[in-house]
Please model this.
Amino acid sequence: MSEPTPRQAPATGSGITCREAIDFIMAYLDNELPMEQRHEFERHLSVCPSCVNYLDSYQRTVTLGRETHRGNTDDVPASLLKAIGAARKRSGSA
Amino acid sequence: MTTSPISGVHTSETRPEPTGDEEHLLLSRLRAGEDRAFDDLVRLAAGRMLAVARRMLHREEDAQDAVQEAFLSAFRSLDRFDGRSRLTTWLHRITVNACLMKLRSQRRRPERAIEDLLPKFAEDGHQAMPSRPWREEATCSADSTEVRELVRTKIDELPEQYRVVLVLRDLEELSTEETAEAMDMSVNAVKTRLHRARQALRALLDPYFLEESSK
Ligand SMILES: [Zn+2]
Model:
């Protein structure tokens, strides 16, 4: 397995590093990044395919978490329904 | 049991969200202390609450306990429900809190360090190992049982404090502020933890979704 060279973005003299870019991702997606940092972030992406891939998989991770769990309703065992009813009578609420 | 005034609740397999009017009616019956109204509430909400508890807790027994505790706590505090939020939303919050209480009372499981799952950087701040693209279609099938199971298993592998924040924010869709309040943390701490949790989950899913050519 040969590793492509990790340094796809110019290492120096051109704005932020991958470390900073990845730090910014959540604020960027939430539209909470100040204008200047937003530009830096986008400029970094324009020269760093690795961070483009990272951003894409990060977003897809968030979506997956959300969508694979959205609004599901589980079948409730009859024993649990019964236990809740019994517990209510015991606790004397209502 | 087909005489419930909440239409569809007992007959529908999918149990659609009750409408505001249905909730309102149920609430007045509950406040009037109508015995059957409590059973109706349980049948209406237990399935969703159990799904939440199973997402938050590892053991089935604990999940069922938490749902039971949530209902008892809801019955006790019905008077304090101000009707400004939906009944189902209110029950959802109560369930989350019951689960958090359970988690706090449990002994911590051995877990891996979050740092192992965060990206590594070279000295110049660039990614030590370049991130590779995920297959285009890999994540489209969020509905498939396989993908659901995979995501679920990987979320379970997250270190507990990160897992809980991710579940509350991304799965239960609480706001940052609500999560901060529920977990007694600052808003900034929630943000930091969520970002790390997502990065860690991304890392755990990465090997499954990489493009063949870039594996
Ligand atoms: Zn980069």
Observations:
- Chain A touches chain B through 53 residues (CB under 8 Å).
- Confidence is low (pLDDT under 50) at residues 1-12 of chain A.
- Residues A 9, 18, 21, 44, 48, 50-51; B 127 surround zinc ion (CB under 6 Å).
- Residues 25 and 51 of chain A are 10 Å apart (CA to CA).
